[in-house]
Amino acid sequence: MKDSNKQYLYSVLRQAWQELRVMGTKAGQVLMRTPLPRILMLCIGLALLITLIPLILTLFVIFMLVKLLLLVVMINVRKNKVSNVHAEQSQRSWSYKDMDDVEDAQLVRIEQINYRRNDQ
After folding, report:
1. In b/e form, how buried is each residue of 4-40, taking b as 16+ CB within 10 angstroms?
2. Which of 93, 72, 90 is nearest to 82 (CA)?
3. CA spacing 20 to 30 A to 118: which of 55, 83, 100, 109?
4. Do 44 and 51 form a contact (C-beta atoms < 8 A)?
5. Neighbours of 43 (CB within 10 A)
6. Distances (CA, A) of 33 to 28, 39, 42, 57, 119
7. Tens digits of residue pLDDT in 60-96
């Protein structure tokens, strides 16, 4: 059984090699009929295409990562700013100095509340 698998694989590889060789000879014949300046321009264009596409994709990924990083930093800064404002307001204790800015404020002390019968 191993010999039949090896023979099958060998025949498939041999056929693929023959097809590639035929395609290579046809491409060689076309290149022999093509003028050199056109081949030079084709090679330069292919080289630019091969080098620019990975460069463009890399720059796109880098800029998207930088944008994501800046977004995370800005969200963190805003969250800290809001939490710091709330922390300052909750830590500040009430004092009589706060009352100086208010004109009509009066300090009222309630010792006992008496309810009327209708309000209960």
Report:
1. eeeeeeeeeeeeeeeeeeeeeeeeeeeeeeeeeeeee
2. 90
3. 109
4. no
5. 10
6. 9, 10, 14, 36, 109
7. 999 999 999 999 999 888 888 777 766 666 655 555 5
Cβ contact 12:19 at 8 Å: no
Structure tokens at 24: 């290579």
What is the model's pTM?
0.40
